[in-house]
Design goal:
Elements (H helix, E strand, L loop, with lengths): L2 H21 L3 H26 L2 H6 L9 E4 L8 E8 L4 E4 L12 E3 L1
Antiparallel strand pairs: 1-2, 1-4, 2-3
Helix pairs in contact: 1-2
Length: 113
């Protein structure tokens, strides 16, 4: 299960647990939701473990490995604009670049050269 799906399942299970406790519902439904909540936690841990050992992480080298390279935006208002990468966090994909003339949105895409 993907990380976001696991988090969504955990949130849904938590909501059911909270409601069941508040309403005093039968314990069978409560135990089922607790089981889904715990399973989602394990799915998230496994997904993080897979990401850390993925071939892509090995290729990119993790944090700071792409510092000094350039990103050329391929979508959004900053399309075709380029900037030098000054920081990168592999775990989140967050990147800091030199100043761009136009604003880049979170869902804009680019290529790294």
């Amino acid at each position: 299960m993907a990380i976001l799906e696991s988090i969504a399942a955990a949130n849904a299970a938590y909501s059911v647990i909270k409601t069941a406790l508040g309403n005093g519902r039968e314990t069978a439904g409560l135990m089922s939701s607790i089981g889904r909540f715990l399973a989602a936690e394990e799915d998230i841990k496994e997904a993080v473990k897979k990401k850390k050992s993925s071939p892509l992480t090995a290729i990119t080298g993790g944090d700071d490995n792409i510092i000094g390279r350039y990103i050329i935006m391929t979508s959004g208002t900053a399309k075709h604009e380029a900037a030098r990468i000054t920081d990168y966090v592999d775990a989140t994909g967050a990147m800091t670049v030199t100043t761009m003339a136009l604003t880049v949105a979170a869902d804009d895409t680019g290529i790294i050269i």
